[in-house]
Amino acid sequence: MFLLHGVLLLAVFVSARRVLSRMVRPKDALLRIHYLFEGLFFLHIAWLNLRLLNHLSMMLPFPYADGLLAGWDRALHLDWAAYFNAVVSRPLLYDVLDVSYTSLTPLSIVVLVLLILFGSVTRAREFIETFLLTAVLCIIIGAAFPANAAVVTLVPDLSTLAHLSQLPGAYHIPHMEMLRDPSAPVLLDPAQLPGLATFPSFHTASGILIIYACRKSWLSIPAWIYSIVMIAATPVHGGHYIVDLIAGALAAMLAIKVVKYMNEKNRGVATTRGATACAAI
Which residues of 216-247 are buried (b: 16+ CB within 10 A; e: fewer)? Predict the structure, then answer.
């Protein structure tokens, strides 16, 4: 299915590109279709490679950092247990946060699609660039801080959570155990590659990137609402320590600064070359 989706996206992108190359005055709608499927195809391939890199990086022999991350929470007076208990004791809130956490990937695609369809192609490209840079940062840093899950480390008696359909924030543990067991075969299935980086929190970083991509537009308020709810879900449904959220926010802001600097530098180079060419004429 992954291969089929990639072929379909590539087919539409190539077809639109061929039609555009034959048109003297390309239609705006066709241009947007071209940019949309170009971006979707690129993300389709990049996302698989990022997930593979994330899983392979977790085979590095760094010790589990749960004790360290929990200690940083305590040093910053961040009470993960109190927050977790407050959420778990409210079933409706618990379910809403669960939906928001698991919907990040489709919502990110929706943001990209809306940006392109409503003419913000530059903003959409910026969103892809910051998204990829942040993912690489989280994977590289996260490889040095592998962790089980905050719920496993900080809840004294897991039997108290038996009323829940599944242990929250622990979905990645079987994958971590497989990768870190030298005697077990490693199976990497493109359809089963959950995110494994705990510190920094990529979900938190993604929420900030969505807000940034939708700034000063009609998407801004929905982006703020969704991102706040989704980030609030990460300590429970993502298995994150609260310090992971801080690190994720810093990673996103660094990526935004780097991409903004590089784009401004590229525009400056292009302007200088244009001025030089005009002077030569």
Answer: eeebeeebeebbebbbbbbbbbbbbbbbbbbb
**β-bridge partners, 192:** 189
Cα gap 267→45, rounded to integer Å:
27
Q: Kindly give the residue spans of alpha helices, DSSP state H, lying in the chain.
A: 2-21, 28-57, 66-75, 80-88, 91-102, 104-117, 121-143, 150-154, 173-180, 202-213, 220-237, 242-280
Q: Hey, is 230 helix, strand or coil?
A: helix
CA–CA dist 216, 237 (Å, integer):
30
| The pLDDT of residue 25 | 65
Chain centre distance of CA 122: 19
So what's the pLDDT on residue 242?
96
One-letter identity of residue 183: S
User: What was the pLDDT predicted at 251?
Assistant: 96
* Model pLDDT, residue 278: 45
> What pLDDT is stored for residue 119 in this prediction?
75
CA distance 93 to 98: 8
Which pTM does this prediction carry? 0.86
Site of tokens 């600064």: 257
The residue ranges of the chain whose pLDDT is under 50 are 275, 277-278, 280
Q: Cβ of 168: how many Cβ atoms within 10 Å?
A: 25
Backbone angles phi, psi at 155, to 5 degrees: -95, 115
pLDDT at 26: 59
What are the backbone dihedrals phi and psi of residue 192, each rounded to the nearest 5 degrees, phi first?
Answer: -135, 70
Which pLDDT belongs to residue 277?
46
| 223 SS3 class | helix
Residue 102, CA distances (Å) to 73, 151, 212 in order: 24, 18, 21
